[in-house]
Amino acid sequence: MTLIRDKDFGTPARTSDKQVTLEIDGRSVSVPEGTSVMRAASEAGVNIPKLCATDKLESFGSCRLCVVQVDGRRGLPSSCTLPAEEGMKVTTENEKLARVRRGVMELYISDHPLDCLTCSANGNCELQDMAGQVGLRNVRYGYDGENHLEAEKDESNPYFTFDPSKCIVCSRCVRACEEVQGTFALTIGGRGFDSHVSAGAEQSFLESDCVSCGACVDACPTATLMEDSVIEMGQPEHSVITTCAYCGVGCGFKAEMKGGEVVRMTPWKDGKANHGHSCVKGRFAWGYATHQDRITSPMIREKITDPWREVSWDEAIDYSAKRLKEVQEKYGRKSVGGITSSRCTNEEVYVVQKLIRAAFGNNNVDTCARVCHSPTGYGLKETLGTSAGTQAFDSVMEADVIMIIGSNPSDAHPVFASQMKRRLRQGAKLIIVDPRAIELVKTPHVKADYHLALRPGTNVAMINALAHVIVSEGLEQTDYIRERCDMEAYEAWREFVLRDENSPENMAEITGVPAEDIRAAARLYASAHDGKEGRAAIYYGLGVTEHSQGSTMVMGMANLAMATGNIGFEGAGVNPMRGQNNVQGSCDMGSFPHELPGYRPVSDDATRGLFEKDWGVKLDNEPGLRIPGMFDAAVEGSYKAMYIQGEDVAQSDPNTHHVEAALRNLDCLIVQDLFLNETARFAHIFLPGTSFLEKDGTFINAERRTSRVRKAMQPKNGPDGQGMDEWEITCRIARAMGYDMHYNSASEIMDEIARLTPSFAGISFDKLDRLGSIQWPCNDKAPEGTETMHVGGFVRGKGNFVVTEYVPTKEKVTRRFPLLLTTGRILSQYNVGAQTRRTKNNIWHDEDVLEIHPHDAEERNIAEGDLVSLESRMGETTLRAHISERMQPGVVYTTFHMPDTGANVVTTELSDWATSCPEYKVTAVQIRRTNKRSDWQEHYDEFTEQTRHIAE
Ligand code: SF4
Ligand code: SF4
Ligand code: SF4
Ligand code: FES
Fold it and tell me: Is residue 224 lining ligand 1, measured as CB closer than 6 Å?
């Protein structure tokens, strides 16, 4: 294992149909027009010294270290800013150039601490390398002149330090913050000798707008911006390429290691989802993997009020199998089931659903996608024929109009948000449909053209009104529709959206958005059409799916995209912003109770036959229970045992009272996780899981991209260091129950997935290692995968328009509950927070707050920071108030990262009509000032204390 150092070509790659050929140090080099001489030289193996240039940023030309000589030209131009031209003859090394470069280095070094041997960048410092490369031997100016050596460090950021005494003012950090991240938190203040890097208006990094993405740290060629972990541990000695385990962007990372310890995670330049960028979570918030709260020994107990007893793996597995079998003997084959996790690898998920189908003998398997993107699967399959997004992330760089609906990319999908901002800064138009003014509505250099701030729960009314404008104003792409879509379905849809009831004027009252804004936004979306004159892309999130009409809305968006000819090429499409790292994969792997891997119905004899033959067992042909059905059956008493892998239903699922009642009623609850999470309070068996750093397998991101997850460290989940792969734990339970499930490696599991699932037919670990990542479908027709779906025609044959009638949610505001609560995420925390809460990310967010519009706050005499009771028809909880203009009057908002927030104590049991995805985004509530925590919160503390006890 070696340390992987990405080659830096100095300036970004260019694409052009035209090649130019030049001569560099006598070598002939051909590059696309627009390529810099520096890059051309680097591609030919000639490394011109550089300091202010890096290929992640546009060239800047400030340091003058990269000067070259060009035949027939006067002066010594900087090669990073000099475009390669046909016939150019370039010399990169001669005595004159060497003198200039040494002079540049002398100036830098005369104002630089000479502490190389004790510097944290020692061995990985571009300044040090360049001093060596230019042959610097002495500094004529001495070291006693005016300098910055006493400049004070800024250690305010919890993960990196800014030491200005080492700064060479190359501006790479400033440009990285602008060009790569799009935050514009840094500037160069002062002039001449006083020039210095400044966060915000001479603030500390923590006080500034910095979002701690790490791009500046990555770009810095010296030790000025340095990870604290490197300062503490020293430089890493080997790297392992893997994939971030937080959100659905699926960023590639290098885990940079020292033995079995992570020194730092750096974004992988060749990662196709992130191209070397990251956010604060993937880059810095990995400390939870070795947090002291981690449970590393299997544990069992008879009753949930007993203390936990640590046991060997053998005992834990046998006890699990025994209790599951006892339940089945007493209550029947269908009285047990399980939940797979979108945090886990495909291979881990696949074996859990196989355990349930083959060893439990039923289809009682569901996944956390039930509570987030199940409507995506349903809606896109009905209309287009595939339960997945249509594009690659890079496609956004071709979009001329971007419509974001119910998604907050800056917080939930930050690396993709940065890419999207880049496109917006290039001039793409932006429409945002969201009850709340998310960051993208107005941010440095990006401003939405339209923000349709609709009332929560009225998405379908909005999409119908947009469609009405497009159809009634003749903005459809009729040739596209005729060629690609089912005309009968189209005519029915057309007749429906044209009805007066769907006009923006009639829908304005329901959505709360002025008709003229809806009309203008519809015209803008439709103005980008047919792949020649412009392209429009829709990106959406849980603000679409987590509604009683979630599936309807997904189909409504697909209708709109088909009607305007915006599917089947880059820059267009309908794109779900998947929440969890592997939510796409967990759905693909057959985690739903009615579908085998690859979304094929369990009721289909031929499909079942295929799996029965391979698995050597008869399979149930009846769909099993969905998660809400499991809870209902548990409360009612017919469902008695559950195996839950990496999912914290007690915190994440709606109507906490009901979920807790269900969990209490189980005879056997097995929780497999890293921590004693909220669900584990009700468990009888705890099987310690592994963090992503200990896993071997694959994740699939929001763009259908399968990427490898590789073991950076050995599994830590076992007594006396006997860690076990999570898929092996599942296999051992299966074997203990009498079904022989055995694999030698995760790779073997993927081979089985590929053998049985047509869209994965061409995927193997070998191919992934070769290609880096693969977007499914990958098969004989597309051996290297598929970037854009539905090119030339829809997967289902003809595109299917579906009539999307607006049906208001049953959750109504009344005098008693006059406000609507909606929920979302924040950048620094992740979902139930089990991981991020165990990192220094708490510095940004250690408490969920309730955002309230000033008007609503004033009416209730609520001031910033007051404790407020949040009460719905389902329950009550207490939070701190944050008065915010981002809200519209009548709507309040909170995040749900902290368990004792109890956001789900108030959410209802209403759900999407097609998929049972909970309606998290609309709850009628009342708020009032209070001075105490709610009864639920008091009870929570007590019960948590009681049920987390581990026997000494
Ligand atoms: S902090 Fe680093 S990247 Fe920024 S100007 Fe100084 S040396 Fe260059
Ligand atoms: S960490 Fe990211 S956001 Fe913060 S200053 Fe650096 S580049 Fe900008
Ligand atoms: S954007 Fe998502 S995948 Fe990328 S580093 Fe952040 S959390 Fe990880
Ligand atoms: S690297 Fe070209 S001017 Fe600095």
Answer: yes
Residue with token string 């001479």: 202
Ligand 2 pocket mutation, candidates 211, 266, 443, 844, criterion most atoms within 8 A of CB: 211
Q: Which of 587, 539, 577 lies closest to 250, judged by CA?
A: 577
Residues 213-246: b if buried by 16+ CB within 10 A, e if exposed: bbbbbbbbbbbbbbbbbbbeeebbebbbbbbbbb
Q: What mean pLDDT do residues 10-29 have?
A: 96
Query: What is the pLDDT at residue 912?
Result: 84
Cβ 48 under 6 angstroms from ligand 4 = no
The pTM of the full predicted model, rounded to 2 decimals, is: 0.94
Mean pLDDT of the chain: 92
pLDDT-derived band of residue 143, with 50, 70 and 90 as boundaries?
Answer: low
700 CA to middle of ligand 3, Å? 13
Residue nearest to atom 8 of ligand 3 (CA): 282
Cis peptide before 808 (omega within 30 of 0): no
Q: Which ligand is nearest to the CA of 282?
A: 3
Nearest to 701 by CA among 904, 433, 327, 416: 416
Give phi and psi for 494, each to the nearest 5: -60, -45
Take residue 270 and report the two structure tokens written for it: 């060749």
774 lines ligand 1 (CB under 6 A): no
Amino acid sitting at position 931: N
52 lines ligand 4 (CB under 6 A): yes
Q: Which of 949, 931, 935 is nearest to 900 (CA)?
A: 935
Are the C-beta atoms of residues 577 and 447 closer than 8 Å to each other? no
- CA–CA distance, 761 with 759 (Å, rounded to integer): 6
Counting atoms of ligand 3 from 1, which one is nearest the CA of 246? 7
Find the mean pLDDT for residues 264-285: 96
Phi-psi group of 902: left, alpha or beta (phi > 0 → left; psi -120 to 50 → alpha; rest → beta): left
C-alpha closest to that of 126 among 52, 43, 40, 215: 52
Of 809, 944, 942, 807, the residue nearest 873 (C-alpha): 809
Query: Assign residue 135 a region: left if phi > 0, alpha if psi is -120 to 50, beta otherwise?
Result: left
Decide: 800 and 383 in contact? Cβ < 8 Å.
yes
Q: Is the CB of 31 under 6 A from ligand 4?
A: no
pLDDT score, position 904: 81
Do 925 and 872 form a contact (C-beta atoms < 8 A)?
yes
For residue 246, what pLDDT band results from cuts at 50, 70 and 90? very high
Burial letters for 743-778: b for 16+ Cβ neighbours within 10 Å, e otherwise?
beebbebbbbbbebbebbbbbbbebbeeebbbbbbb
Distance from the alpha carbon of residue 185 to the mean position of ligand 2, in angstroms? 6
The pairing of beta strand 891-895 with beta strand 849-852: antiparallel
pLDDT tens sequence across 343-399? 999 999 999 999 999 999 999 999 987 777 788 989 999 999 988 889 999 999 999
What is the pairing mode between strands 186-189 and 196-199?
antiparallel
CA distance 556 to 67: 57
Q: Is a pLDDT exceeding 90 seen at residue 481?
A: yes
Res 531: pLDDT: 43
What gap in Å lies between CA 93 and CA 345, rounded to an integer? 51
pLDDT higher than 90, residue 146:
no
Give the distance (Å) from ligand 4 centre to CA of residue 11: 10
- Number of Cβ atoms within 10 Å of the Cβ of 115: 13
Token duo for residue 606: 């031929």
> How do residues 410-440 score in pLDDT, each as one tens digit?
999 999 999 999 999 999 999 999 999 999 9
Question: Is residue 58 lining ligand 4, measured as CB closer than 6 Å?
Answer: no
With vertex at residue 793, the alpha carbon angle to CA 788 and CA 796, rounded to the nearest 5 degrees, is 95
Work out whether strand 876-883 and strand 849-852 pair parallel, antiparallel, or are unpaired: parallel
> How far is it, in rounded angstroms, from Cα 242 to Cα 265?
10
